[in-house]
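Hey, resending since the last one bounced:
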Amino acid sequence: MSEASVGNWVIDPASSHAEFTCKSVWGLMTVHGTFGAVTGSGTVGTDGTITGAVAIDTAGLNSKNAQRDGHLRSAHFFNVEKYPSLTVTVASATLAGQDLACQGTISAAGGTAPVTFTAHVDSSDAASVELHGEVTMDRTLLGINGNTIGMVGKIATGTLTAKFVRA
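The structure tokens again:
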């Protein structure tokens, strides 16, 4: 970690986005979708510690099917009226080459679960850094149990491309 990286960083929402995939129709079809706005911040300490949090607007999810989107926003899944965002909190991250090994938690729909993932540094300079990460997990660990007659798979993958700029 270079001294140039030390300090506070915030996400540029216009240059950041989050997506999801999950098997449906008894595993025969993959549903692809996007979430709403991505916000958050991170800190690089003088000792090289890296922490941060990213909030992803689940109320703005879009899978290009209005009926499915309504169901995903309902209390059966994300319960966006009560929990309008999904939050990834990074308690620690270690830089190894162009990758950050991250450990923390993911919170959505009132549940929280531990998570580990790798975020790849796509680009960086003194003013910005762009990261790309992917998390695959069992959504039921968060209490997201909605599943009409076994149609929706338990394993979901979320991807995030986030551009951080100096705070």
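The chain has a mean pLDDT of 92.

Sorry for the duplicate.
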